[in-house]
Specification:
Helices cover 47% and strands 10% of the residues. The chain has 338 residues and is mainly alpha-helical. It folds into 3 domains: 2-94, no CATH class; 107-264, no CATH class; 277-331, no CATH class.
């Protein structure tokens, strides 16, 4: 499932959608699951905070769509941006998000990659992953980067890319469009691969419009016939990126400095120190061995109980509250059984 944002007049309406494979049309399409209107935050029930609930009809619709008894977790993921920063930090503290190793590419994955992933998708992933304007090494794109796109209809995939594109600064928009449409192929200048701002911009704009119109009618890209005579909203944003924004200011010294720092940057995690048993006992009221035998859920429950007792707003000690919080952050992944 995914969250679609549809402009209606001056408002943005939000709809929960789900991709599915239509055997009759032999392509992935989407179905609407629930209309959230212009204010999805109204569907979040914070009455039992820090426990989170959602409106009953919304949870039921998501459960029927396939989430089952995980509808609450699925909605938390889908509506994450509508929680406040403080709520996100609090919820993230108790989440069980774990890094999962991606399995190697199978022959079935290779076939799906060939059938489902359009060249334009690969070009966007290539820039977003490597920041490379020159697309001549596109074949080096790591295949596993394409795996999240499997099983998505074009609509879901475009919203997925919109989320990925949030990391791009407005100063990079025009360069991004130049790269993903591979506009350098129309220019023979030696610097076209790394300095698009020095090229003929009118000629570049003409080629861009031609490429977008061609993509707009590409049956392979959309999975089904595109609507005739109209530019799809998912492509309109690239015209905005190109025509409404300029190139970033640059200089030789700035480029040299950036490259030098990038080549010599080294990152090391700070050395992790084990907490003292006395500190743990004072903070949690339990011994280190007792904490080791707890499940992660019980450990989180104990932390919440102690946090309420020590919270400064409830008359607790500020320093002890900070110590408790820091200890929990260090212990929650080390102690506690799944």
């Amino acid at each position: 499932m995914y969250l679609a944002r549809i402009r209606k007049g001056q408002d943005i309406h939000h709809v929960l959608r789900q991709s599915f494979f239509d055997p009759q049309r032999a392509c992935y399409r989407f179905r609407d699951i629930f209309e959230l209107g212009i204010a999805p935050a109204l569907f979040i029930d914070r009455g039992q905070w820090p426990a989170i609930a959602f409106r009953e009809d919304l949870e039921e619709a998501v459960a029927l769509a396939g989430a089952g008894n995980r509808s609450g977790q699925e909605l938390e993921r889908l509506l994450w941006e509508f929680f406040t920063r403080e709520e996100q930090e609090e919820l993230g503290r108790f989440s069980r998000r774990r890094a999962v190793a991606s399995p190697p590419f199978s022959p079935e994955d290779e076939e799906r990659l060939r059938k489902e992933i359009h060249l334009f998708d690969r070009k966007r992933l290539y820039f977003l992953r490597y920041g490379a304007v020159d697309q001549t090494r596109l074949h080096l794109l790591h295949k596993k980067l394409c795996r999240p796109l499997f099983g998505q209809c074009r609509d879901e995939r475009e919203y997925h890319f919109q989320m990925l594109e949030r990391v791009i600064s407005p100063a990079e928009y025009r360069t991004y469009v130049f790269a993903i449409f591979d506009l350098q192929r129309f220019f023979s200048e030696s610097y076209s691969r790394f300095m698009p701002e020095a090229l003929d911009q009118e000629r570049m704009a003409d080629h861009l419009v031609e490429d977008i119109c061609r993509l707009n009618g590409d049956r392979e890209f959309w999975g089904e016939p595109a609507e005739a005579g109209a530019l799809h909203p998912h492509l309109q944003r690239y015209l905005v990126m190109f025509f409404d924004y300029g190139y970033p200011s640059r200089s030789f010294s700035a480029d040299f400095t950036r490259e030098f720092i990038g080549k010599h940057r080294r990152f090391r995690w700070p050395e992790e120190k084990s907490p003292l048993p006395a500190e743990v006992n004072a903070a949690f009221g339990r011994s280190m061995e007792e904490l080791r035998r707890m499940s992660k859920r019980d450990l989180a429950r104990l932390f919440r109980k102690r946090a309420k007792e020590l919270h400064p707003d409830r008359g607790g000690d500020h320093h002890r509250f900070i110590v408790l919080n820091n200890l929990y952050e260090g212990l929650k992944n080390r102690f506690g059984k799944s």
